[in-house]
Amino acid sequence: xxxxxxxxxxxxxxxxxxxxxxxxxxxxxxxxxxxxxxxxxxxxxxxxxxxxxxxxxxxxxxxxxxxxxxxxxxxxxxxxxxxxxxxxxxxxxxxxxxxxxxxxxxxxxxxxxxxxxxxxxxx
Length: 123
Fold this sequence. Notes:
Blueprint: H1 11-24, H2 37-44, H3 48-61, E1 64-67, E2 71-74, H4 78-102, H5 107-117
Antiparallel strand pairs: 1-2
């Protein structure tokens, strides 16, 4: 999963979102050691201070923790990772529903489309 950063929002906020995604997707599994700030910054092509700010934000949220002299690790709290995954899913669904509403679809039509795409109408 590559880094996809745009200039329309603060970079550190985008980094937080993308690291959350990588944790939820298992790219950074629960309890695993995170790469160093410099390695992550180089990989994402951002300033190390910006990456440091993003990682600090994830520590504040509880998704990462620091062990002195050993580095940063992904939380071992599986429920917290599930809550983050649910939060990210809700954000995506809200964006989807807003766009469908802008296209003029009603709730029932949206459900019908989703049901047919997911195979829910199959008997």
